[in-house]
């Protein structure tokens, strides 16, 4: 925990009115600032960064910004990425430790503060998109090699020998000729003062000891023993706790409190506040704050009666889906190859289907929280879970009315991930913490209840696509058309930067498929959602690969082909994909669609392919039906990310993605009715239970292709494989998710 700066307490009571315009406008302006400016301009706009984040000539090259070699032989590494269970801290320790010649177990990895040194992802800093390792792998290897070279040169000067005479061994420099050794810690001060050689030689991969090996996670002990510190665990001196009650309808405001005096008199209550779209109570404990805010009788402004420009009083998921289906605007071409119209005119058979997927919550284990503290020197500290520290620094500065260089962002481990921790409009509590800290003159920790989290979480968009395929006389597909209608998070939050009207996050998983179908036309029609939409694990791939791979099974069966064999035929010029199909079939003991007898009943299998985030996957699912419900018994996944840093972490990520993919296709949905989300907690948002968890079998296939992502790619192939297995077993083709909405026939 950082040293606490004492701030005077003001016993402020009463109701403070805080501006929505100030809050929302600040967020929008900071978002544009963070993603549009080139690295140097962005650094200058943010002002001087603190400590190790001082401006670097080139991001990722200033060794002292990343590494602190301690006298006891441990290495403190300031990571550009936020650890959220994906294992990035261990992966960074492996990569840097390999070239530095230090065992990763001796690394202490912390999230770096904001600063341009850490803008190593195409000139920005972000933990997301399954991009951290693959974007930084060469840079981090070079960083480790550069640091080792500096230590060797420092040792040569100390020992008065040539650098070429010195070798290293796990944190020690060795001069074999004289038998002398020096620990890195004894050389660190001298070494870090040297000019780095960015051309320092890298290790031959044939000599790797850590990269490519199943190195144990360096954060496991702290997590297993309860020492790991998440945002929800953090405290600062003289802190108040705040609980929040949001307006039932987004966009409405508190207009009156009928029992304010009585609530202010409740035990421990410090003050009552109106916030944009919410009310809050600050108290000496969170439980007292929550009981008090729940006791408030709040009168809210009325929502708009109808329409899709806001979450109106009559808004519903069914109504939005009907709007997507009924949209008549001509779509923008997302992919166009060949002569699709001509192929349909000549088709011996045409197959058509419509697919839809619901809104999904992140449903993270840790409810969101943030701490804000204004300091006597005019600075602001904010502790908050996030995936882009500099972006949150800019927004926090706007909310507080400060320049960004006056704001310090502290980024703890994430107790939930995969897109939850971006600043989605009013989807995070940190602006509330800042406003309340300013109003009370005390540090304030805002913790949302589980119910408030479900009410305000940004959602994976409800999605709809209409498919058509043309078949020739032999039943082979000659053309495919897809019309996708809706909106994705990239278009919502980064649309001003896009050079195309097509939202890539709305069509990924439908466009650029590897299959040899000569004539293709995919279009996108934007229909904006009135609700807050968000990135979700594997983003558009999470539903679009489900749609496409399910429809491809329909095409295969309509043409009289086995789905596995049709895929092999359509991939005749794609050896990487064909290999994955063979690998997954071998892993599953051979391909057989079924139904077939197994256990006390009958089962069937489904197949799918997916190509998300630079990686390739092939998945086979085995299902049965019990009591009208699908049971997934096995998932076999062949996974090719090109190359890997830690196969144990890769396997764990594929397994966790398989669990979430299974949960999403079988159970999960957020439903709107009368303008309100119907799920308020896990009792009304079913997720995968232990008895529904399949056995997951993973085979890693390193093809040597450029390194792809790991955290998300294991998910998209799972839902379509399950749906295809259900269709094989029951004859029921489920085109609207989740499966739980359909009563399945026994088999």
- Give the total of beta strands: 28
Mean pLDDT: 92
Q: Count up the helices.
A: 21
Quick one: overall form? globular
The helix fraction, in percent, is 25-40%
Structural class: alpha+beta
Q: Gap between N and C termini, in Å?
A: 58 Å
- Sheet having the most strands: 8 strands, mixed
Strand order of the largest sheet: 1-10-11-8-18-15-16-17
**Rounded radius of gyration (Å):** 28 Å
Quick gist of this model?
This protein has 747 residues and is an alpha+beta fold. It is 31% helix and 21% strand.
SSE blueprint:
Elements: E1 15-17, H1 20-36, H2 39-46, H3 63-66, E2 67-69, E3 75-79, H4 88-100, E4 107-111, H5 132-159, E5 166-168, E6 172-175, E7 180-183, H6 184-192, H7 220-225, E8 240-246, E9 254-257, H8 260-264, E10 269-275, E11 278-283, H9 286-295, E12 298-300, H10 317-326, E13 332-337, H11 340-345, E14 349-357, E15 369-374, E16 380-383, H12 389-400, E17 407-410, H13 430-440, E18 444-447, H14 450-456, E19 463-471, E20 477-486, H15 489-494, H16 504-507, E21 519-526, H17 541-558, H18 563-570, H19 575-587, E22 596-598, E23 601-610, E24 616-626, E25 629-640, H20 647-666, E26 672-673, E27 676-677, E28 695-700, H21 718-730
Parallel strand pairs: 1-10, 3-4, 8-18, 16-17, 20-21, 25-28
Antiparallel strand pairs: 2-3, 5-6, 6-7, 8-11, 9-12, 10-11, 13-21, 14-19, 15-16, 15-18, 19-20, 22-23, 23-24, 24-25, 26-27
Helix pairs in contact: 1-12, 4-5, 5-6, 12-13, 17-21, 20-21
């Amino acid at each position: 925990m950082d040293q606490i700066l004492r701030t005077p307490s003001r016993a402020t009571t009463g109701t403070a009115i805080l501006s929505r315009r100030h809050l929302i406008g600040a967020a929008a302006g900071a978002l544009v600032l963070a993603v549009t400016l080139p690295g140097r301009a962005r650094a200058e706009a943010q002002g001087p960064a603190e400590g190790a984040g001082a401006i670097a000539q080139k991001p990722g090259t200033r060794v002292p910004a990343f590494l602190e070699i301690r006298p006891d032989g441990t290495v403190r590494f300031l990571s550009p990425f936020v650890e959220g269970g994906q294992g990035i801290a261990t992966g960074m320790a492996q990569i840097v430790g390999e070239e530095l010649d230090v065992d990763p177990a001796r690394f202490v990895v912390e999230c770096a503060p904001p600063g341009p040194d850490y803008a190593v992802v195409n000139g920005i800093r972000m933990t997301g998109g399954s991009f951290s390792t693959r974007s930084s792998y060469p840079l981090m290897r070079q960083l480790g090699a550069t640091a080792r070279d500096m230590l060797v040169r420092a040792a040569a000067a100390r020992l008065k020998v040539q650098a070429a005479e010195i070798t290293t061994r796990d944190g020690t420099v060795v001069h074999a000729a004289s038998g002398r050794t020096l620990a890195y810690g004894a050389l660190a001060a001298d070494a870090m003062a040297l000019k780095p050689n960015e051309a320092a030689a890298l290790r031959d991969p044939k000599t790797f000891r850590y990269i490519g090996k199943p190195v144990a996670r360096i954060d496991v002990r702290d997590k297993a023993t309860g020492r790991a510190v998440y945002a929800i665990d953090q405290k600062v001196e003289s802190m108040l706790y705040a609980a929040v009650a949001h307006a039932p309808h987004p966009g409405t405001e508190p207009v009156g409190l009928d029992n304010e005096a009585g609530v202010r008199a409740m035990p421990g209550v410090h003050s009552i506040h109106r916030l944009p779209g919410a009310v809050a109570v600050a108290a000496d404990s969170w439980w007292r704050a929550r009981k008090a805010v729940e006791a408030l009788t709040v009168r809210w402004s009325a929502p708009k009666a109808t329409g899709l420009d806001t979450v109106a009083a009559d808004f519903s998921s069914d109504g939005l889906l009907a709007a997507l289906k009924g949209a008549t605007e001509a779509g923008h071409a997302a992919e166009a190859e060949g002569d699709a119209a001509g192929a349909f005119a000549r088709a011996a058979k045409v197959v058509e289907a419509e697919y839809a997927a619901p809104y999904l919550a992140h449903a993270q284990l840790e409810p969101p929280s943030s701490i804000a503290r204004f300091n006597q020197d005019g600075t602001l500290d904010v502790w908050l879970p996030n995936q882009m520290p500099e972006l949150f620094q800019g927004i926090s500065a706007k909310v507080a009315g400060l320049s960004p260089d006056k704001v310090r962002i502290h980024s703890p481990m994430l107790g939930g991930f995969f897109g939850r921790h971006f600043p989605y409009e009013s989807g995070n509590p940190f602006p509330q913490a800042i406003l309340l800290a300013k109003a009370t003159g005390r540090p304030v920790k805002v913790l949302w209840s589980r119910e408030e989290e479900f009410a305000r979480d940004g959602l994976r968009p409800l999605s709809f696509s209409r498919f058509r395929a043309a078949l020739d006389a032999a039943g082979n597909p000659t053309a495919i058309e897809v019309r996708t209608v809706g909106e994705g998070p990239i278009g919502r939050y980064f649309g001003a930067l896009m050079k195309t009207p097509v939202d890539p996050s709305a069509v990924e998983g439908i466009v650029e498929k590897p299959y040899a179908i000569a004539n293709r036309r995919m279009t996108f029609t934007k229909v904006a959602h009135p609700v807050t939409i968000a990135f979700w694990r594997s983003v558009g791939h999470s539903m679009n690969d489900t749609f496409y791979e399910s429809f491809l099974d329909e095409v295969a069966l309509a043409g009289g082909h086995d789905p596995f064999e049709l895929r092999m035929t359509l991939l005749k010029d794609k050896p990487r994909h064909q290999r994955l199909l063979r690998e997954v079939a071998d892993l599953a003991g051979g391909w057989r669609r079924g139904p077939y007898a197994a256990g006390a009943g009958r089962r069937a299998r489904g197949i799918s392919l997916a190509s998300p985030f630079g990686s390739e996957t092939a998945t086979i699912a085995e299902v049965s039906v019990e009591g009208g419900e699908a049971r997934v018994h096995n998932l076999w996944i062949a996974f090719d990310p090109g190359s890997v840093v830690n196969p144990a972490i890769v396997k764990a990520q594929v397994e966790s993605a398989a669990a979430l993919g299974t949960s999403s296709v079988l159970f999960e949905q957020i439903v709107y009715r009368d303008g309100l989300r119907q799920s308020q907690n896990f009792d009304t948002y079913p997720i995968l239970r232990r008895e529904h968890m399949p056995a997951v079998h993973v085979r890693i296939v390193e093809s040597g292709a450029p390194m792809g992502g790991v955290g998300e790619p294991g998910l998209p192939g799972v839902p379509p494989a399950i749906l295809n297995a259900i269709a094989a077993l029951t004859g029921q083709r489920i085109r609207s998710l989740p499966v739980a909405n359909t009563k399945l026939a026994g088999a």
